[in-house]
Amino acid sequence: MDRWKKELTVRTEPRHGTRVDGRKPGILCRLPIVWGVIGVVVALVAPAICAAADPPRPPNIVVILGDDMGFSDMGSFGSEIKTPVLDSLAQQGVRFTNFYTHASCSPTRSMLLSGVDTHLNGLGNMSEFTAPNQMGLDGYEGNLNDRVATLPQLLKDAGYHTYMVGKWHLGKEPTQIPAARGFERDFTLLDGMGSYWDDWNFAAANPKSLYTEDGRYLRSLPKDFYATKTYTDKLISYIDANHGDGKPFFAYVSHQAPHEPYHLPREWRSRHVGEYDKGWDALRQERLKRQVEMGIVPPGTQLSERMWFVPDSTLLAPAARAVMGKKMEIYAGLVENLDHHVGRLIDHLKKIGEYDNTIFIVFGDNGAEGNDLYEMIAGSPGSRDYLWAAMHWSQNHPNAWGDPGSWLAYGPAWAQVSMTPFSQYKAWLAEGGIHNALIVSGPPVRRPAGSINNGLMHVADIMPTLLELAGTSYPSTYKGKDVPPALGKSWVPVLAGQTESPRTDRDVLAWELFGNRAVRQGSWKLRWEWRPFGRGDWELFDLAADPGELKDLAAEHPDKLKEMVALWDDYARRNNVVLPNRSPHETLEDVLPQRVPVQAGYPPLNLKRQYVPPADMLADPKP
Fold first, then answer.
1. CA pseudo-torsion sign 565, 569, 570, 572
2. CB atoms < 10 A from the CB of 391, how many?
3. Mean pLDDT over residues 528-535, rounded?
4. For the CA atoms of the chain, what is the radius of gyration?
5. pLDDT on residue 40
């Protein structure tokens, strides 16, 4: 075979006139001149050889992760935020409306890169909140552990270049950083969040954010650093460095945006001035209306309740509405800036001839952020971290929002907007914490362009999907070690239009984080959450009829409740689940107002308007 490779070069003209690897097509089949019997044999086989095209190169892979980007934050999922680049991928590919991640950053990322449940891959809890009874246990290391084989390792073994830019959040030790876990090139923020402008961190004991480039810890950041732009610049340079060598690439584009603090160039901060003064309730209704019109959610879908501690925005004073609206203006600008830099990457891939052979996978890593991380980190006045925050993160006049040293987050009211129509947000196991928008486009997609699919998908499915597209498979052992079983199911048949979902109604998905837990089978969902977000007991929902989780059916369907609890118990037993004896949610019931139902028009006291008597009954006072 090697002899034939040396003596015979075969080239064919591809269908569209250019090869997917970017090289110019050949014109002639060059054959050695051989006489006699050998010449006759060659003459006979030459037409067949010339007619056979080179086997197609596996597709490039670009995974674009938006940090804390909500289900309804892209235009193609109902948003007023302008995301033309991401929307164009949706128009060329397919939108998935029933896609699940985990409830927070590092757990989702660990499943994306390992294909394995969090309680087996090392992120049974986030490193920031590991409970005392979980410390030292396998599966609870707080970093991606060495018992898993990673997606970049397996793709690299299959002949791919592997690149990463952006947020890692899966370990900081030399054996845990991207270069040690299969990435050939990287420019990476190791921490869970950071400034977009510099390397200042948020806690006094951890004053500097840590970055790596190509396996080396950086002493400083590049000049003119701005996270979203710099990550894009670096990735383009990595792709160009190896372009033309015939190998496909895997690019993990793990943006910080739109995670808080919302840092943004000034020219991007005023694109929606006054637009959000209407308030969160009106905006949720507008997004839901567009979602129904698009087919993202079915007609008749009801919004989840507004969180009971979030005020009716129509009752806010004009100045308060303007200030709250400005927070959402800057968040919208941050999403649009992210879209802009994704566009720079796509334009470059088109320029170098790689776009048409690239699969794009776009999603947010968890629900939108409605929790107060600033308060959680800074603590109370007089503490070390409160002083640190006052010194380094105090540029918080609205006119400075977005500047270095400012800290802006939009809070629970707007987070619920980002998660329209679902309940709750990041860190919780209601749909608003784990249900995300997903776009897939590129060569493997054979469904109608711009179509919508409602199949039940999960972030762990990305591992087997990409391995199949790369012509390889998930191993039972890696480098002499047994690896945990893969959790996911390949999307290849779904993308090809051969089936509507990788799962049947009997398949089970389950989650646990911070003691909150959930399991889904078919349209049924079982959920346990800390009070007051939950009841501190099991709740049962039919998501087909009630995606907003408005009605707990546990009392009405005791047999189904028992069946779903058994599924949870089985999941916990098989996946090494150790429920934490401490949780960041454990004091919320004492901190938040007592939970009450939120119903439109109640109480009418605050909504009553001035009564205007009939004009013919008006009179001046008598003398």
1. positive
2. 10
3. 98
4. 27
5. 38
The pLDDT tens digits for 219-236 are: 999 999 999 999 999 999
β-bridge mates for residue 60, sequence order: 358
Instruction: Quote the CA–CA distance of 93 and 242 in Å, as a whole number.
Output: 27
- Whose tokens are 């972030």? That residue is 459
Residue type at 109 in one-letter notation? R
Point out the catalytic residue in the list 102, 105, 255, 341: 105
Kindly state the greatest CA–CA separation across the chain: 133
DSSP structural state of residue 101: -
Place of tokens 């308030």: 279
Catalytic residue, chosen from 102, 119, 161, 169, is 169
- Rounded Cα gap, residues 195 and 262, in angstroms: 9
**Parallel, antiparallel, or unpaired for β 249-254 and 216-217?**
unpaired
Q: CA 460, CA 503: separation in Å to the nearest integer?
A: 13
Q: Is 16 a catalytic residue?
A: no
199: which 2 tokens?
A: 């390397």
What is the average pLDDT score of the chain? 92
CB 462 within 8 A of CB 100: no
Residue the block writes with tokens 């710099």: 230
Our measurement of the distance from residue 321's CA atom to the centroid of its chain's CA atoms, rounded to an integer in Å, reads 29
Residue 325 to residue 314: CA distance in whole angstroms? 12
Looking only at the bridges linking them, the beta strands covering 451-453 and 94-100 are parallel
Structure tokens at 595: 């939970």
pLDDT-based confidence at residue 57 (cuts at 50, 70, 90): confident
- Residue 205, CB half-sphere, CA atoms under 13 Å: how many? 4
Pairing, β 161-167 against β 94-100: unpaired
Rounded to 5 degrees, φ, ψ at 297 are -130, 155
Of the candidates 429, 568, 513, 526, the residue with the CA atom closest to the CA atom of residue 134: 513
Of 108 and 608, which is predicted with more confidence? 108
Which tokens is 35 given?
A: 């006489």
Provide φ and ψ at 11, rounded to 5°: -135, 140
* Alpha carbon 32 to chain centroid, angstroms: 54
Q: What is the pTM of this model?
A: 0.91
What share of the chain in percent tops pLDDT 70?
A: 91
Segment holding 48, helix H or strand E: helix 36-51
Other beta carbons within 10 Å of 610: 4
User: Is residue 420 predicted with pLDDT exceeding 60?
Assistant: yes
The 10 Å Cβ neighbour count of residue 159 is: 14
Axis crossing angle, helix 105-114 with helix 462-469, rounded to the nearest 10: 30
Nearest-CA neighbor of 56 among 15, 9, 103, 112? 15
What's the pLDDT tens digit per position in 321-376? 999 999 999 999 999 999 999 999 999 999 999 999 999 999 999 999 999 998 88
Q: Is the pLDDT of residue 263 over 90?
A: yes
Residues 366, 108: Cα–Cα separation, whole Å: 7
Cα(498)–Cα(509) distance, integer angstroms: 22
Task: Please report which confidence band the pLDDT of residue 447 belongs to, taking 50, 70 and 90 as the band edges.
Answer: very high
Confirm whether 105 is a catalytic residue: yes
Q: Give start and end residues of each alpha helix (H) in 279-429.
A: 280-294, 318-351, 373-378, 384-392, 411-418
Alpha-carbon span 229 to 151, nearest angstrom: 25
Do the Cβ atoms of 570 and 507 come closer than 8 Å?
Answer: no
